[in-house]
Design brief:
alpha/beta, TIM Barrel, three-stranded parallel beta sheet
């Protein structure tokens, strides 16, 4: 799971979830060298084999102007989860760019309409976010939209999760670290994803795409600690705390 792909420059605090364009290109090279197949989530579900599903959240313009051409050059596809109210705003892809990406085989899916923490919304709010995003994507791109990436990895409250399926979503992409197998295919199911950020070195990226067991243990242990903090603070307060830590130059996900 990626976010923005930036021009070649030192990454600052605001680029915490970004990778540079040269780093992203090296990642695609590494996938090929490992004889793996970089593809969209749909293609990975339909033909798992040696598939590595590539996905992006938010719809940053760097995805359209840097990641997309690199994917095409490597004959790969990816799934782009777009926050629809951000489309066309400064720093984000336009509808025209998304149409071009879809035409080249990329999958454009929902990251809600305004990127809220879904656990903080009531039933009407959850339904509105999911319905507006899916409706806009289907109207503008003339497609069936069936996938949702959770903003901030935040599920709706347990009693409201049925709304996801009721609003037409069949796959839910989470921010939980890990790989996925056939046993994960329940509807709607929570795809685990591995966040790539900060220009990891070649060995680390290779461990990510190979599903290295020790890396998984370390990442999931870290997630448990942060999940406890998040549960204690609530998602909005946790996000503010994380930003304050990042602004102090520390590394918290």
């Amino acid at each position: 799971m990626y976010h923005d792909v930036t021009a070649e420059r030192p990454l600052d605090v605001g680029d915490y979830f970004s990778v540079s364009d040269s780093s992203f290109t090296r990642h695609l090279d590494a996938i090929q060298e490992l004889q793996l197949r970089g593809c969209s989530i749909t293609q990975a579900i339909e033909q798992p084999g040696n598939a590595v599903a590539i996905s992006f959240d938010d719809g940053n313009v760097g995805q359209a102007v840097r990641a997309f051409p690199a994917l095409v050059a490597h004959q790969m596809t990816a799934t782009f989860f777009v926050t629809t109210s951000w489309v066309g705003r400064p720093g984000y892809a336009s509808w025209q760019q998304l149409e071009e990406m879809k035409g080249a085989g990329m999958s454009i899916q929902s990251h809600t309409h305004s990127h809220p923490f879904l656990s903080e919304l009531d039933a009407a709010g959850v339904r509105e976010e999911l319905r507006r995003a899916r409706g806009q994507l289907e109207d503008r791109l003339q497609q069936r939209t069936t996938m949702l990436a959770l903003p901030g990895g935040d599920w709706p409250r347990t009693a409201l999760r049925h709304i996801i399926a009721e609003e037409g979503y069949e796959v839910v992409a989470t921010s939980r670290w890990g790989t996925n197998g056939p046993h994960d295919a329940r509807m709607p199911f929570g795809l685990k994803r591995c966040t790539v950020r900060g220009n990891p070195d070649d060995a680390t990226f290779s461990a990510i795409v190979r599903g290295d067991a020790w890396l998984k243990i370390r990442k999931q242990a870290r997630e448990h600690v942060l999940a406890f903090v998040r549960a204690s603070l609530g998602p909005s307060r946790y996000a503010r705390w994380r930003r304050s830590v990042l602004n102090d130059g520390q590394s918290v996900g």
